[in-house]
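Lecture 7 notes. Example A: sequence first, then its structure tokens.
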Amino acid sequence: MNKKIFVFVMMIFGMVMLFGEVGDFRYGNWESNINTFDLSGFGDRTGGKSAFRAMAMSAVLPGAGQAYLGQNTKAGIMMTADMLAIFSLYRFTKEINGLTDDFKVFAYSNAGLRRGVSDDIYRLAHNWRSSDAYHDAMRLWARDLFLIILNDPESYARAIEVNSLSPEDSWDWDHDAYFWHYRSIRRDRQNFEIYRNFAVGAMIVNRLISTIDSVIFANRLNNSNAQLFSMPDFDRKGMALFYEVKF
């Protein structure tokens, strides 16, 4: 839940970065359901800045393009956010690797599951207390589908052959408590995989926000006749954004 809040905050932060300077956010005037943000005179003007260079710098390191354009506050915030996301990615990956080793060692010690089996076998051990229980359920499923419903003995035999496990891949949990603890370890690993995906998503979003913002701001520095429009999109039940440069 804390990681979801982190991503939500990143999204809010991105909207603020795109539509307003920190400490100098300007609200547009609503006229005929159209919200206009006048971008002329917005922020400090230095002129002569390359939008392409700012975009490339921001794509590599969020905030670098803002630093190039003289937006030091934005640059610091975006770089800090990226460092936090990178640290989170490292930490979550480390947790995933540790939990993976933990459940494999635990399965070997308490269920007799040999080391080096495929991930599919570990997944089956997560769902079935023993390989015998798995085989019983699999044969029952194949019988109901291929013999009773489809009346196809050949497909039944093929399904049994394909889904049967070799004796060396068998397992049997000594106690129910071990079985549930194994499942708990794997659930924890799954949660950290989700958190890691959030961290990767935050890094991508941060780069996207930084890239778009740097291009918009660079164009503002080089052209005072720029405006950003927002208006309701009733068909899609949202807002439509328009960036206009008058020559």
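Example B, a different protein, same format:
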Amino acid sequence: MRTRKFVAAAIVGLSVSGVLVADAPPAPSPPPPAPSPSESASAPPATVPSASPSPSPSPSPSPSPSPAAAVGLSLFGGQLRGLASYGRHAPAVGAVVIVRPDGATTPIRVSTTGEDGAFAFDHLEDGAYRVEVRREGYAPVVKTGIAVRAPFRAVAELLLVHGTEPPPAASSAPSGTDGHRVAMKGMVRLLAGAAVSEAHVRLTRVDGGDDPRALLSGLDGRFAVDGLAAGTWRIEILGAGLLPLRTTIDLVADTTLEAQLATQPANYQPSPQDLIVPEEAIPPKGA
């Protein structure tokens, strides 16, 4: 009987001893032996790594200019908001708005009005502006002396009435510009600001004194044309699903133009002129 109790106690003691050993931290390893004098003599002296010169920072690439800056338009400035209408609750959809500084010929900003008859121009330099609204079958409306000053917003409301648009002047070339050639550079964008690529831009001299020009806007919405005889030109800008822009502008010197196109409303009724396919000049054989 005493033998059994002794064996059982021994077994319990072994089990408890095993648990305690398993939980105990491992004994620290003995320190490495010190090197012998011969080994210390043969070992090479420790060297301190020399600090390598820090590489000079590479110049960061300069940001590419925005389309507005590329055509000479200000990136900062005041705002001009407006509304063109035929009367109360009758917005003028598809009217053409022309904005330029008072007493200046460039830059020119043109826009079609949207479904609510509204128009908006940003990045205007401080000063007084001339605003004109045109619509086929209506007399043009002009307001001058509209003060624009950043960061404030100028507002203009224009009411169109039935009438006849005055025909272009008999002499399309302004005084002192006969035979003078000018250039135009510009961009086409949506009212929201996005560039319109592959917009059809067509320029026609009102008096027929120069060949018409036809071109497409680039991927960034920009276009450029030079060698235009100074005078009054009719400009037409068309984009898929956008309201057409047609108006006349006086080109006296090199001109910068920004055109904004509004989206066609679902119930838009195109004018007869919109249904005419523009004629393209066919070069003679062998040309």
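Note on Example B: The chain is about 10% helix and 35% strand. The first strand starts at residue 78 and ends at 87.
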